[in-house]
Records
---
Amino acid sequence: MPASPSAPPAPAGKRRSTSAWPLALATACVVVYASLYPFSDWRNQGLAPWAFLGAAMPRYWTAFDVWVNLLGYAPLGFFLALTVMRGTRLTWPVTLATAAAASLSLALEAAQTYLPARVPSSLDFMLNAAGAWLGAGLAFGLERWGVLQRWSQFRDRWFLPEARGALVLLALWPAALLFPASVPLGLGQVAERLEEALVDLLEGTPFLQWLPVRDVELQPLAPGSVVICVALGALVPALLGFGVIRRTARRLIFLGLLLLVAVAATALSSALSFGPEHAWAWLDQPVRFGLAGALLLGLAALVLPPRAAAALALLAVGLQLALLNQAPSDPYFEQTRQVWEQGRFVRFNGLTQWLGWLWPFAALAYLVLRLSRSQALAEGPHVEFRA
C-alpha cells in the first residue's frame, strides 16, 4: 500500500520516536512511589536486605494483594517490551522486559526492609515478575498480530513525528484531573503548599527570615477569574494536541473528545470525593461558562500552525498558573484533600495529587523545549489543513 501523502515516512536508517519509553519511565516512577510510600522512618531493622527471599510465605494475604502485585507490574512489562520492539534493535523483548521489571521489584522489596511500614515478601516479588511477564507477553502478541502496527499507522496519519512528548502528557492528563482541585481543571495550584513546606523546613533557622512576607492574605478567585481558569485548564491540553495533530477536521474531533474526558474525569473525582450523588456539584455557572469559553477558543484555534498552537499553549499555561497561585485553597477543599491524601486504592497513596501538581509544569517544560527547536520544526513536515 503506498504511503499516505499526509504521513511522510521516517528518514532511512532512522527509527521514529516512540512514546513507549516515556510511558515506561512514568510507570516505573508509579511503581517506586507505591512500593516505598510513605518514604519515612527509614531505619536498620537488623535484617539483611535479601532476607525476604529465604523467608516463609506470608500467612495472611488477600485476593486484592495478589491482584495488585500481579497487575501492578503488567503495564511496566508492556511498555518495556514495547520499547525494546519499537525503539531499539535488541531482541528477546519479553525476556529483557521481564528481567528489567523483576530487577526493579527485587530492589524495591530489598529497600522495604528498611521501612517499618512495609513488609517485603518473596511472594510479592514473584507476583511482580509474573505480572511483568504477562504485560510483556501481551505487547509481543499485539505486535505479532499487527495491532501495534495499526496503531503506528493511525499515529502517522494523525500526528506529527515529534508528537511523543505531547502524547505522554495527554495520556497523563485525565489521571491528573482525578485529584480534586480548588477550581475544576485547575492543575498546578502549589504556591500556598510550597510556602507552608518551606516554612516548616526552615523553622528554627536564620534562613526563615529570607522568605518573603505578604502584605495582604491571598484572596479567593472572583467568578470571572474562575471562568478564565476553567477555560485555560481545558484549552492547554487542546492546544498541546493541536501542536501535533495534522488536519483541522481531526483537531475538531480531538477537541470534542478532550472536553468529554475533562467533564467525565472531573465528575468521577467529585463522585469519589463526595459520593455519586454529588458527581455534578462542581458544574456551577462559572464552570459552565469556562467550558463554553474553552470550546469557543478551541474552535478559533483549529487552523493555527503547530508552532503557533504550542506558543499559545505556553502562554495559556503560564497565565493559568499565575491566576491559580494568587488564590488560597478554601477550607472545604482542604478537608477533601486530606481525605484523598490518606486514601489508597484509586488514590494510589497520593500519586494523583503529584500528577495534579506537576502536570502543568511538565507541560511548561515540554513546550519550552518544543519551541526551542525552531530550526528542526521548520524543516519538518507541514500540517495540512483539510477537512
---
Amino acid sequence: MQIAVASGKGGTGKTIVSTSLALCAPGPVQYLDCDVEEPNGHLFLKPELTTHERFTVIIPEILRDKCTYCGKCRDICRYNAITLFANTIMTFPEMCHSCLGCFRVCPEDAIARGEREIGVLESGMAGDIGFVHGRTRVGEAMGVPLLRAVKKRAIHGEMVDEEKKTLVIIDAPPGTSCPFVAAITDVDYVILVTEPTPFGLHDLKLAAEVVHNFSKPCGVIINRSDLGDDRVEKWCLQENIPLLLKIPFDRKIAEGYARGLSMVESAPELRPVLQDLLASLVRDYRNNLQLGMK
C-alpha cells in the first residue's frame, strides 16, 4: 500500500506526521521524501545515506552543421525552449521539459542529446525504514522529473520486497501544483494534514478537490486542533471526508520538533494512536482489494 501525506499549504506538520507514521509501521516500510525542493524528512529519521547519484534530464543540443533552420523544433516546443531568428537558433536548457518532441520532428537529425543536472538522488536506511529523497539544485525551477525518480527508485527499485508487502509512506510537496499531482499519482490513499485556521481550510479545500479529481480516497488529520475553530471539522462532515485524527497542540512536540525529534519520540502516547490509524487504513485497503477481486 502506498500512502501519500500531503497538505494544501506548508507549515501544517505534514513531514512530522509522515515520519512518525513511518516509525510506527509494524512491518517493512519505505519513506519517500518527494518534497524535492526542500526535503527535511531526514532531519527526523536521520538515515544513513549509502547512495548519492547525480540526476540529469535530456536537453537538445543543436548540430549547426546539419541544421537547415526549418523551425519545426521551435514550433513543437510548448515551453519556448528553442527559438529561431533567421539563421540563428538558440536553446534555453532551463525551460526544457525533456519531452523529446524536438528530436522526433527534426527532418535532418540535427539535434543531439545533451544532459543537464537538476539535482541529486540519495537513499539509505533509517533503522528498518528504507529511505529515499531527492534534492534539487539551488535555483532549479523544475523538480517534477526528480520527484518521479524518487518514486520510481523506491517503488520499483531493489529496496522493495513484494512478498513482505512493503508499506510506502510518501511525503508529498505542499500546495496543489504539478509536484503535488506527481506525488499522489498511483498512490492508494492520501492523508491531508491541515490546521484549524481560515488559511488551513482554504488550502485544504483546494487539495481535496485535486485528490477527488484523481479519484483517490482521502482522510484528514487536523494538527494543533485546539488552537483554532471547528470549521474544518464541519467541512469534512459536510463533504463526507473522514476525519482520521485530531492532534492537539503540545509544547513538548514543538520543542522536540525544534531538536529534530519525531512526534512519537516527543509524545510516545501518540504511537499506539498512529499504529491504530495505519492498521485501519491497511485493513480497509486489503478489504477493498478483496472486494475488487470478487
